[in-house]
Amino acid sequence: MTGPDASVALCARGLGFQYRRRGGRALQDCEFTVPGGRITALVGRNGAGKSTLLHLAGGLLRPGSGQLRVLGAVPGTSEARARVALLTQDKPLYPRFTVADTLLMGEKLNSSWDRTTAERIVREGDIPFHARIGELSPGRRTRVALALALGKRPELLLLDEPLADLDPVARGEIMAGLMAEAAERGINIVLSSHVLPELEEICDWVLVLQDGRIKLSEDVEDLRQSHAVLIGAADQAGTLAGQHTVVQSRTSGRQLTALIRRHGPLRGDWHVERPRLEDVLIGYLQPGEPGHPAPAERTKAAA
Amino acid sequence: MIDYRIDRGSGVPAYVQIVEQTERALRMGTLQVGDKLPTAKEVVAATAINPNTVLRAYRDMEQAGLVELRRGLGTFVTRSLARPGVEDDSPLRGEIADWVTRARAAGLERADVLALVTAALDAYDSKHDSTTPGDRERKKEDA
């Protein structure tokens, strides 16, 4: 939607963070740039640091080291707060407020407020304005929280597991509504999720976090083009080493299945499949590096 | 108007699915010259896919000369893909119906029939180096 020179949505340099109580580093040496106009999937296993990163971007936490910029601004500053909306997993709403009160609160708290959009999102979910937040189903509460976030007219919308407690129909509706907003306004969206199939065809940029470090920050189409799933005889595994990056490989009997990042032409006799985004992401999320043996016996460490 | 259906599990990128479904509608005549395609917002509101994907499909079809993007108005069909040979009562259709009857009588299964047709098409195309705009996308994906 936006050209290559469009502003940068998110940029981290040497970003680190440590929770005082929990110990251990939640984020470490994170370096990445998410270009503007993207719908970004923030992917990682439980505890990888997804929520921490989103809380930092939303200005709810301060970096322990390094720096993070949202739309070029320091998170938490008034400049950033006016342009960035964060929807956290707990969706902090007042349970005793009615839906109408909640939207009114949004109007009072934000310098610019798009009442039409906020009310439309609520109405599309058939939610009565006089209902109390505490009485709403989780799906409807998510919708109200989203209305509150989008009513701000943010340029960058950060969503932490927005679909986690929704049924499949509500998930589809919420996602379709978000995409429609993105189509109309060209807003940047960063959403964390571990439901990988749902990200297919939604996201055009991925950030993969593993143990607090950034493992991938890349365009989805590039990612799919550069990777391949190979199926062939296990004794030709040697033709891959050195030239291509073997992300994940599995041998069963005489057959080898491997996810590789291609560098140049393939040698050997392989059946080549184009991976889905999900295949690539799972390849990177599974522990398979030397020194971190995979739990599954047959999964060989990446060469 | 056309309703797009996106199959996320197929491995075929959504923009290719949109192009293919549009072309199919053009061949069947359910979309005709002058018809307006749904806006990107309408498509994503119905399918929950990335809006950039829709725009990319529309751009590809514009480059292929199938549609025209008119600023502020929308995307319109400029060329039909309906061909005289594919109507219900055309000679070509009658011939292949007869052929399919003979193939079935000879015990060929659906997959055998499709494989024969594909092989014949491939042989013809490689000899004459001819591809039509409709073939273009899939070829590119296969490469």
What does this structure look like?
The complex is a heterodimer of chains A (303) and B (143). Chain A is elongated. The two termini of chain A are 39 Å apart. Chain A has 8 helices and 14 strands. Chain A folds into 2 domains: 204 residues, 3-Layer(aba) Sandwich (Rossmann fold); 74 residues, no CATH class. In chain A, the strands form 3 sheets. Chain A has a 6-stranded mixed β-sheet with strand order 5-6-7-3-8-9, with helices on both faces. In chain A, strands 13-10-12-11-14 form a 5-stranded antiparallel β-sheet. In chain A, strands 2-1-4 form a 3-stranded antiparallel β-sheet, with helices on one face. The two termini of chain B are 32 Å apart. The C terminus of chain B is likely disordered. Classes of the chains: A alpha/beta (303), B mainly alpha (143). Chains A and B meet through helix 6 of A and helix 2 and helix 3 of B.
List keywords for this structure.
heterodimer; A: 303 residues; 2 domains; six-stranded mixed sheet; 8 helices; 29% strand; B: 143 residues; mainly alpha; Arc Repressor Mutant, subunit A; 6 helices; 56% helix; 7% strand; elongated
Number of helices of chain A: 8
CATH architecture classification name of the largest domain in chain B = Orthogonal Bundle
The chain pair with the largest interface is: A-B, 23 and 22 residues
* Quaternary: heterodimer
Write down how many β-strands of chain B occur, each being a DSSP E stretch of 2 or more residues: 3
Low-confidence segments of chain B, given as residue ranges, are 136-143
CATH superfamily of the largest domain in chain B: Winged helix-like DNA-binding domain superfamily/Winged helix DNA-binding domain
CATH architecture of the largest domain in chain A: 3-Layer(aba) Sandwich
The CATH superfamily label of the largest domain in chain A reads P-loop containing nucleotide triphosphate hydrolases
